[in-house]
Structures are given as C-alpha cells and as structure tokens.
Design a protein that fits this description.
The protein has one domain: P-loop containing nucleotide triphosphate hydrolases (Rossmann fold, 3-Layer(aba) Sandwich). It has helices at 13-24, 31-41, 44-55, 61-71, 86-97, 113-121, 161-184, 197-207; strands at 2-7, 27-30, 77-80, 105-110, 123-126, 132-134, 153-154, 188-192. β5 and β6 (132-134) form a beta hairpin. The chain starts with a strand and ends with a helix. The chain is of the alpha/beta class. It is 49% helix and 16% strand. Strands 2-3-1-4-8 form a five-stranded parallel sheet, sandwiched between helices. A three-stranded antiparallel sheet has the order 6-5-7. The structure holds adenosine monophosphate.
Length: 208
C-alpha cells in the first residue's frame, strides 16, 4: 500500500507515521528526517537546506522532489512531509507514474493552530534516533534521555513559538489546495487529530 500521511507540523504525523508503517508493514519515508540527517552530516544537501529549515521556510520544490525521487520506489511506503504544496503533489504523481504506480490513500490529520503551538513547544526529539517525546503527554522515562537508544533528547531549532506560527501559516496556505487535489481523486481520508496517540491511531486503522 502506498500512503501519504498529511498534516500540519505538530499534527502528530511523526508519531503516527512510525505506528502506521509498522502496522502496514511498509517503509516509512520522512522527508523532514532525511533533510535533518543531511544537515547533521553537513553533506552538500544539508548545507543547501539548513538555513531554510531553521527559519521554518520551505526548501525549494526542485530540491525536495529530487530527494523524493531518489528515495521512493513502487513498493509499499508511507510518506510523511511530502507533498507540501500542489506542485509537489503533481510532481509526486509524475514520479510514481514513471514507475507505473500511484498513491492509494492520503490520510489527513486535522488539527487547529493553538493545539499545535502547545504540542510543538513541548516536543523533544532524540538527537540520535529521531524518536519523538512530549514533556507532558509522552515523557521519556528518564528526563532528557531517549528510552529507545539512551542518547540525549533535544529541542528542534524550529520548535519555538515564533517559528511554529510561521510553519503553520506556510502550511495552511497550501494545505487546502492539496486536500482538494486528493479529494477530487477520491483518495482523501480526514481524521480528527485531537486526542491521545492510541485513539488517533485507532481512527486511522479503521479508515484503512
Ligand atoms: P518537518 O520535519 O516535516 O516539519 O520538516 C522540517 C523542515 O524541512 C520544513 O520546515 C522545511 O524547511 C523542510 N521540508 C520538509 N519537507 C519539505 C517539503 N515537502 N518541501 C519543502 N521543504 C520541506
């Protein structure tokens, strides 16, 4: 199955994407993770995207589409962080059609701005394995330490209220066009993104 998980930054995608990829038995392709890894390694891709990412701005369509094309195949996958605008959605269709393939479902995690600001400013991630935590709703067992790999938890540079608001406005600007695009293709499933992790996961499973 080829599925896109779509939602604003902080809609819970990062958490649900891991659960769902395991459930479906498919590979998770998280564009944000791929880019962050490139920044960490200081590769030429990382150097190109770093400034944009720290400001909460989008990286150029051409660049991210190239990254997706290099990482995608016609087998099952769960895609997170791409497409983020209508041009990217069309580009994805083009990339997949070259492989005689297409997207089966687009799951939209629907959530409001204030919930997102609350969630993201308290989010912590593992600097090593990328696991997600939340200071209140999903704390690690030992403060500041990853349960999965024992490395240090950090706050993403773009998880501060000012940058979060900027990321939200970048998101809503394009989201409606993407939703309409997939709705017209009968591929869109809207999921209420409020509530706890298990509850939301159950809603998604029910729709699939
Ligand atoms: P995320 O982890 O998905 O919130 O992505 C973090 C940052 O990576 C974004 O704020 C952008 O700077 C960049 N990025 C991720 N996905 C895309 C995309 N599809 N198009 C352009 N930039 C992206």
């Amino acid at each position: 199955m080829r599925v896109i998980l779509f939602g604003a930054p902080g809609s819970g995608k990062g958490t649900q994407v891991t659960l769902l990829a395991n459930f479906l038995g498919v590979r998770k392709i998280s564009l944000g993770d791929i880019l962050r890894e490139a920044v960490k390694k200081d590769s030429s891709l990382g150097q190109e995207v770093k400034i944009h990412m720290e400001r909460g701005a989008l990286v150029s369509d051409e660049l991210v589409s190239r990254v997706i094309e290099e990482n995608i195949d016609d087998k099952g996958f769960l895609l997170d962080g791409y497409p983020r605008n209508l041009d990217q959605a069309k580009k994805l269709e083009e990339i997949l059609s070259k492989k005689n393939s297409d997207i089966d479902r687009v799951i939209y995690l629907d959530i409001d701005e204030q919930t997102i600001v609350d969630r993201l400013s308290q989010r912590r991630i593992c600097g090593s394995c990328g696991a997600n935590y939340h200071l209140v709703s999903l704390p690690s067992e030992k403060e500041g330490v990853c349960d999965a790999c024992g490395k240090e938890l950090v706050q993403r540079k773009d998880d501060n209220p000012e940058v979060i608001k900027k990321r939200w406005s970048v998101f809503v600007n394009e989201a409606n066009k993407i939703l309409e695009f997939y709705e017209n293709k009968n591929k869109l499933v809207r999921i209420d993104g409020r509530g706890d992790i298990k509850e939301i996961f159950e809603r998604i499973k029910k729709e699939l």
